[in-house]
Amino acid sequence: MRFFRRKAKTFSTTQVPLSVLMREIVYDAMLTPTEGIADLMGLPPISDEVAEMEEQASHDRLSNISELLPFIDAHADIVAKIATSAYILDEENNESMGKEQIDQLNHLFKMVSLSAAVSCVSTLTNIGLIESRVKTDE
Known about the structure:
By secondary structure, the protein is mainly alpha-helical.
């Protein structure tokens, strides 16, 4: 049996210090208060002016993947329902969970999955590990 080797593709990525990458992820995750979250994560404080620049940079990164956001949102919704179902099935007293608790749990899982997916795709696009093949009018 003969195995074919694919020619290795070469690509370049942008090198980003971990603390900078972590702050970008915090902003791209779209959870607030961003600087409060960054502080709890142990990131160094930044000025209001730098925070505004970070917010604009995040807006620009998210604009680059805007065509994907409806698909990511739909995916996050499905993942949230899966996670909620798995939690309920694993819970010892699952019968005691009311509809309101289940809805809150689903909302929490949706926020987590949406934030994780958006910030991941944004980061991978920004550092050059993935490229969008979506055609635009530009």
